[in-house]
Structures are given as C-alpha cells and as structure tokens.
Amino acid sequence: MLLLLLNHLFFISATHPTLSCADVICQEQERCKMVEGVPTCIQETFSTCRVTGDPHYLTFDGKTFDFMGTCTYTMTKTCDEDPDLPVFSVKAKNEHRGNPKVSYVGVVIVHVYDITITVVRSEDGFVRVNNQYSRLPISLAQGKLQLQQKGRSVLIKTDFLLKVLYDWDDHLVVKIPSVLANKVCGMCGNSNGNPQDDVLLPNGDTAQNTEDLGWGWKVLDESSACFDSCIGECKRCPRDEAKKYKVEALCGLLSQSSGPFQRCHAVINPKNYLDNCVYDLCVNDGLHNKLCQALKAYADDCREEGVIVDDWRTPARCRE
C-alpha cells in the first residue's frame, strides 16, 4: 500500500506494517532519518567545493588556495571503507590557454555506478558516457544518475545527492550531502568542518605546499607532458596593480553594497570571488573577458543557492 503523509510517500506492507526509511520517498533536497522509531524526511545540508578561474580552489570546509598544475587531479572521492557508502570520484584535468603562468579546468571526469562521465570544455550540451559522445539530458543506472543542462552548465546528480556542475569552461562546483562528511578526500578536502586539515595527502600527511598537494592527488596514469606548478615562476600581482582592478567598475562590482549581487552577499561571501577576480585580471594584463568570467562564476554560484541576481552584464559590459 502507498501512503502519502506530510507530502512524502510511504510504502506500507500488510504483513510488515512497521515503517523504515526503505519505505519512504523523500523530496529532492531531503533524506530519511529514523527519529524515535519513525522514518522522517529531514532537509539535507551540503558542503560545497569550488574551482574557479585560473584556478582558485575553495574546499568543502572553506580553505582557499591557488594551484596552477596542468595534470589530472582527484577533486574528491569516497575514502571510507563503510560498505554502505556510495563509491564515486570526481577528477579534473587542467590546461594552459595561452598564458603558461596559469591554468584552467578543461575536463571533468565523474565515475559512479561503474559509469564514467567525461565533460570536455566547449562541448556545450554534450558529455561522453563511457567514451560515447552523448547529448543531454541523460538518465543512467535505472535513474540513479541524472545528467541535464542547468543554465550554461551541465549538472550531474545522483540519488545519494552528489551534485557536480561544470560550465564547459573554467568553473567547477562539487556538492556533497552531510552523510559524506569526513568520508571523502582529495583536493577538495574531507568535509569535516575543519579547514585546517584540508591539505592532506593520500597517506594522511599534511602537504607542504600546493604543488605537493597536487602531486599527491595527481592521477597516476597521467602522461608526463603535464606539470604540477607554473612553467617558470608563478606570476604575482603587485599591490598597486591590484588596487586598480578593485574599483566598482571592475571587480568591485562583486561587493558593491547596492550592486547587482547585493542579495547574495549574506548567502555567499563575495570576498574570495573579489580576490580571485583581481588576481585573474592582474595576471592576464586586464583582459576584459577575465572580468566577465569572474563575475559569471559568482552569479552562477548565487543562482545555484537560490538567490536572484540582477543584471550585471550591462554595467560590466559583458556579453551573453
């Protein structure tokens, strides 16, 4: 028998009337938890890892760092032996795009349910499923793995609420539910609430620097034609030069109190996005496209959190 209770679906057996979470279908952003012997749908909470621009990393626990390697690296994967946990991995391959001092995410690889999803830069609207070029939307693994286009990004989501978004350019977002807290590892950290231990190597040691961290999480079958750092010395941004990019007409638009992003400030702190924007403009000699990409990254993340963003393209002179 099917029972609808408080907007949730319950399956009740005549011979086994006791309910469990196996009998419950919760809504999309919820998970079932037994509360005093009763299966209850509770709102799920998520940890988010972001890789933006050339490239700036924000771990699940909020630690930030820049890393310019051009190999394939494990962003996150299951790192717990609990047999009830889903096994998955998310990897990203970085690439140079003209400037050898910086790199960008060019390929995203998600492996789950014995299926490999590969998303390649500029292949908008398409992914590769086990190396087969496929058009979105796609449903796999009896519906447990869903792929669709969301705005200008591909959204890969599973029944255990893993979400991966990539804009086919340079912006990667990975969201994991609370049940995976402290059960994952990789460049995105372990999601245990402590940003101080987010730069751990696979053996549990603390990485000495970002190059060491990247080397530790590099995919071992990667070709030798890649690097875990900049070619030559990584470019820095002098304070005087950074100052000119912080004005409200440029990167300062992100934090403008009455600007197009104002409603998002209380949900996602714009500081990291502002710092990333300034750096990206600085190392690319003020290239206007880098401003547009930086603003778009914040706009996309705000919309993903359900925040309405006003028109930012007009004041920033950024085309669709």
Automatic annotation (TrEMBL):
The residues covered by the VWFD domain are 47-227
Alphabetized, the UniProt keywords read: Disulfide bond, Glycoprotein, Signal
Which InterPro entries has this protein been placed in? Mucin_vWF_Thrombospondin_sf, VWF/SSPO/ZAN-like_Cys-rich_dom, VWF_type-D
Q: What is the lineage of its organism?
A: Eukaryota, Metazoa, Chordata, Craniata, Vertebrata
Which superkingdom, per the lineage? Eukaryota
Q: Where is the signal peptide?
A: 1-22
**One Pfam family it belongs to:** VWD
**Cellular-component GO terms for this entry:** extracellular matrix; extracellular space
- The identity of this protein, by name, is IgGFc-binding protein
**UniProt keyword Repeat present:** no
